[in-house]
Design brief:
InterPro entries: Ald_DH/histidinol_DH, Ald_DH_C, Ald_DH_CS_CYS, Ald_DH_CS_GLU, Ald_DH_N, Aldehyde_DH_dom, BADH. The chain is α/β, with parallel strands linked by helices. It contains 16 helices and 23 strands. The chain has helices at residues 42-61, 64-80, 82-93, 97-100, 104-118, 153-166, 181-192, 207-215, 228-238, 263-275, 295-309, 328-343, 379-382, 398-405, 421-430, 463-468; strands spanning 5-6, 8-10, 13-15, 22-27, 32-38, 126-129, 132-140, 143-147, 170-174, 200-202, 219-225, 244-248, 254-257, 287-291, 347-350, 354-355, 365-366, 369-372, 389-395, 413-417, 435-438, 457-458, 471-478. A seven-stranded mixed sheet has the order 15-18-19-14-13-20-21, with helices on both faces. The termini are far apart. It binds NADPH dihydro-nicotinamide-adenine-dinucleotide phosphate (NDP).
């Protein structure tokens, strides 16, 4: 059987590289190579920039309404192909089809639709200054770059292309080397929807290709999703020509459950915020602070539901709700964290080991894991694990829990469960986090801006403000009176 090899997607077509260098892509649920992908070598990189320049000229000259129509056609195609695309994401990421089927493509399409709707509403301002006046124009930046993580590959490509393209920019997108196919599918859909060639190019490869994008002098902005450490490197590279940056980075988010909370609801949130997408979600509430009065009751329900309701196995089986981790290396990393948790004195309430489900015995599974007897200094409580590992901590007092929740350099998400509305708002307003939930966890509609405080990021995705982050303001001063000159 000949192996399938995907090429880079440049100027509306697949283009062969010259180096012949490729990398394999493995199905995390089977440990088998599914296909290979060509690396974007120097030849491809040059083509990508030339094409993006041409794409930008055409696309930025179109009216926002014209751009909007094309983006909406792409939204239609994304939704029409939901099942096929969801399967692509399952095979690349190892996540359950029951998630991909209703979340990944839909929430990606929602964001493109949202920005397609907003594009024609962008307006400048006008103000008189004496007899003269000035006006402003919101102009696109030019060529932008998107660099994505592997946990929501197609959704991330949509979340970056939606605002970038709606504002009239072209985008060169690099998906993670582990999940390269979703972005290619999106590129094909954009072309089918009538987008000019070069507006959305996909380049493939690992860090080297990401570095090239972040340093290239013709790229005006880089929007990055990934780890904090990589984000810092990307920012350093972007400083070479003072690129604008958006950074969507990691987190170690707290969930605070007060003793007046609906306990079952809080357990649902804690499970969603730790085990959905097998724990590979940036906003996960991996530090769960539970008030001492309800601690035992919370643990009993959490243990029962974790042990009875989670089904690991072949992610293509619609009954499976816990998939495989992205790679063998990542599985080992998560297991190492679990080992460290035990060594530092935390107790396993449940889980704490790899899994070999009958339907996917070679997959990189880790059992949903809950640690108790945790303290704030433990490594598992401090560092992002990015797997299904929850740490439960006890608290007694509101001020104490706020201080502990804020004792981190990160600041992506935070949640509060309480039926006392004043307390819920009071506490959430004091938490250092950009994405907060009260009596809920994880929902992220297109209309809501998302992004991190502190080292969890810079800038926002989604929401109205993001469209402005893909434009620059041009001020035009118009003289109506005679120039007042001493010369
Ligand atoms: P990484 O930081 O390892 O990689 C992210 C992307 O950057 C990948 O495409 C990667 O390529 C690329 N890359 C790696 N090195 C460089 C470099 N020096 N310059 C430019 N690009 C580079 O993150 P992961 O893919 O491991 O994703 C998991 C992380 O992403 C977690 O920390 C998670 O919290 C965060 N994340 C944040 C989100 C948010 O919205 N805040 C959402 C989703 C995830 P390659 O993978 O091919 O090596």
């Amino acid at each position: 059987m000949t192996a399938v090899v995907y090429q880079n997607f440049i100027h509306g077509a697949f283009v062969a590289n010259q180096s012949k260098e490729t990398f394999p892509v493995v199905n995390p649920a089977t440990d088998e190579v599914m296909y290979h992908v060509e690396v974007a070598d120097e030849y491809i990189q040059k083509q990508a920039i030339g094409s993006a320049q041409q794409g930008f000229s055409k696309w930025s000259a179109m009216t926002p309404v014209e751009r909007s129509r094309i983006l909406n056609k792409a939204v239609y195609l994304l939704r029409e192909r939901n099942d096929e695309l969801a399967k692509v994401e399952v095979l690349d990421t190892g996540k359950p089809i029951q998630e991909a089927d209703c979340v990944d493509i839909q929430t990606g399409a929602d964001v493109i639709e949202y920005f397609a709707g907003l594009a024609p509403t962008q307006m400048g301002a006008q103000q008189p200054v004496g007899e003269d006046f000035f006006y402003t124009r919101q102009e696109p930046l030019g060529i932008c770059a998107g660099i994505g993580a592997w946990n929501y590959p197609l959704q991330i490509a949509c979340w970056k292309s939606g605002p970038a393209l709606a504002a009239g920019n072209s985008l060169i997108f690099k998906p993670s080397e582990e999940t390269p196919l979703g972005a290619i599918k999106l590129a094909e859909i954009f072309i089918e929807a009538g987008m000019p060639a070069g507006v959305f190019n996909v380049v493939q490869g690992a860090a080297k290709v990401g570095e090239w994008l972040s340093t290239h002098p013709d790229i005006e902005k880089v929007s990055f999703t990934g780890e904090v450490g990589t984000g810092k490197k990307v920012m350093q590279s972007a400083a070479s020509n003072l690129k604008d940056v958006t950074m969507e980075l990691g987190g170690k988010s707290p969930l605070i459950v007060f003793d007046d909370a609906d306990i079952s609801e809080a357990v649902s949130a804690a499970m969603l915020g730790n085990f959905y997408t097998q724990g590979e979600i940036c906003t996960n509430c991996t530090r769960v602070y539970v008030h001492k009065n309800i601690y035992q009751e919370f643990l009993t329900e959490l243990k029962t539901r974790t042990e009875q309701n989670i089904v690991a196995g072949d992610p293509l089986d619609p009954n499976v709700n816990l998939g495989a981790l992205i790679s063998k290396k990542h599985q080992q990393l998560v297991l190492d964290y679990i080992e460290q948790g035990k060594q530092e004195g935390a107790t396993l309430l449940t889980g704490g080991h790899a899994l070999k489900p009958e339907s996917a015995p070679n997959g990189y599974f880790v059992a949903p894991t809950v640690f108790i007897d945790c303290s704030d200094e433990m490594t598992i409580v401090k560092e992002e694990i990015f797997g299904p590992v929850m740490s439960v901590l006890v608290f007694e007092d509101e001020d104490e829990v706020i201080a502990r929740a804020n004792d981190t350099e990160l600041g992506l998400g935070a949640g509060v469960f309480s039926l006392n509305i004043q307390r819920a708002h009071r506490v959430i307003h004091q938490l250092k986090a950009g994405i907060c939930w009260i009596n809920s966890y994880g929902n992220s509609p297109a209309e809501m801006p998302v992004g991190g405080y502190q080292q969890s990021g810079i800038g926002r995705e989604n929401g109205v403000e993001t469209l402005n982050n893909y434009t620059q303001t041009k001020s035009v001063y118009v003289g109506m009176s005679k120039i007042d000159s001493p010369f």
